[in-house]
Amino acid sequence: MGNFVCIEISSDQTVDRFIRFLRGKGYIRNLKKNLRRERRHDINKGLKLSSYNYGKSVYLLLEEVKNLKSEGNFEVVAEPAPTSGVEERPTQSTIGQDKLLETAWNRLMEDGVGILGLHGMGGVGKTTLFKKIHNKFSEMASGFDVVIWIVVSQGAKISKIQEDIAQKLHLCGDEWTNKNESDKATDIYKFLKKKRFVLMLDDIWEKVDLEAIGVPDPTREIGRKVVFTTRSREVCGRMGDHEPMEIKCLEPEEAWELFRNKVGYNTLSRDPVIVQLARKVAEKCRGLPLALCVIGETMASKTTVQEWEHAIDVLNTSA
Ligand SMILES: Nc1ncnc2c1ncn2[C@@H]1O[C@H](COP(=O)(O)OP(=O)(O)OP(=O)(O)O)[C@@H](O)[C@H]1O
Ligand SMILES: [Mg+2]
To answer: Which residues form the NB-ARC domain (predicted)?
Structure first.
């Protein structure tokens, strides 16, 4: 009947207690499953292992547990989980945003930073970077309970922002609907006060009154963050971030890379003159990703030198 695995856990009470502590984490929790898997693996490799070997591996494992306990080194067995409920947002591949993402993420994760603004001209890539920051919460452990993404946009009212936040926090219902703005603010406040939260406001055009919405002051306690994007440097200051991050246009080589990708190899490989003209068109976009993307995509179907020359004429007259 094959090799049965007989696991005899030591009666040592300390080890027992420690095993209970480890339940729910990693290898030990799934000890039986892991041993079964190892056994299958060994059998697949053509090895005939006896229960003695398994008894031995359990013994070695318990020794390791004892050592870990004596070192107090528990990180090895307990991996913190990513923030739950953060749904990844679709993003496109980008040029030159990796470093920015790292800088923004590191700033945001600093304990002393409660509010962080990203500013830059329209089409420069603020929302794109913002999505990447958001997605990082879904990928890795950040220590936050809730991450809320809200698109604010021009003219947004307090009530609309409250509604969006309440929806994300599942506070809505008949009772909620009948409340006035101030009571809704109290509900949001009561909920968020107990949480480690990140509120992400995309595209704000003026100061957002966090208190009126019910958002606990992010500068008063660690574990509260408000991060936003805006076109206006002034709005950053009014929101309380006096050292906001500026998102700048792409460097010339980055711009060319983005443009070249959008136009595509098929078109560019038709004629070396098209490549020269394409470089000129890319320069006209002055590193603005939105322009590079839109014009690049449009030019992808222009396969004659004449069409490219015409495009340059048009850009010259509209500049
Ligand atoms: N670094 C980049 N690499 C590739 N594409 C980019 C990059 N930055 C932005 N884009 C593209 O440019 C377009 C505009 O970007 P985005 O919407 O992020 O700009 P924005 O700064 O938020 O603009 P707005 O102020 O109007 O909200 C998007 O289609 C995006 O995919
Ligand atoms: Mg945007």
So the answer is: 98-268
Q: What is the pTM of this model?
A: 0.76
Closest C-alpha among 270, 273, 268 to residue 257: 268
Segment 80-98, tens digit of pLDDT: 566 667 888 888 899 999 9
Give the tens place of pLDDT for each residue, 151-171. Answer: 998 999 999 999 999 999 999
The domain ranges of the chain are 13-71, 98-246, 252-318
Phi-psi region of 286 (alpha: psi -120 to 50; beta: other; left: phi over 0): left
Question: What lines the ligand 1 site, CB under 6 Å?
Answer: 92, 94-97, 120, 122-128, 203, 231, 258, 289-290, 293
How many residues are given for the chain? 319
288 C-alpha vs ligand 1 centroid, how far in Å? 8
- C-alpha torsion 254→93→130→138, nearest 10: -140
Q: Identify whether the C-beta of residue 192 lies closer than 8 Å to the C-beta of residue 148.
A: no
Whether the Cβ atoms of residue 91 and residue 135 lie closer than 8 Å to each other: yes
Which of 290, 295, 297, 298 to mutate to test ligand 1, by most ligand atoms within 8 A of the CB atom?
290
Q: What CATH class does 98-246 carry?
A: alpha beta
User: What's phi and psi for 199, nearest 5 deg?
Assistant: -105, 120
